[in-house]
Design a protein that fits this description.
Elements: H1 2-22, H2 29-47
Helix pairs in contact: 1-2
């Protein structure tokens, strides 16, 4: 479950970067998803899971 959450978080960060750097308007929802992705990555780093 944790590995799947990490993969989803990475995908969300990539989608955010593409939309941010590409100039596409995605609305505010992409920023909320980015926060969720960052929290998931931080939880994985703090727990020390490899």
């Amino acid at each position: 479950m944790g590995n799947l959450l990490y993969i989803i978080a990475v995908i969300l960060v990539i989608i955010w970067a593409i939309s941010f750097l590409g100039g596409y308007y995605t609305g505010g929802i992409i920023h909320a998803l980015l926060v969720i992705a960052i929290v998931a990555i931080l939880l994985r780093v703090i727990r020390g899971a490899a």
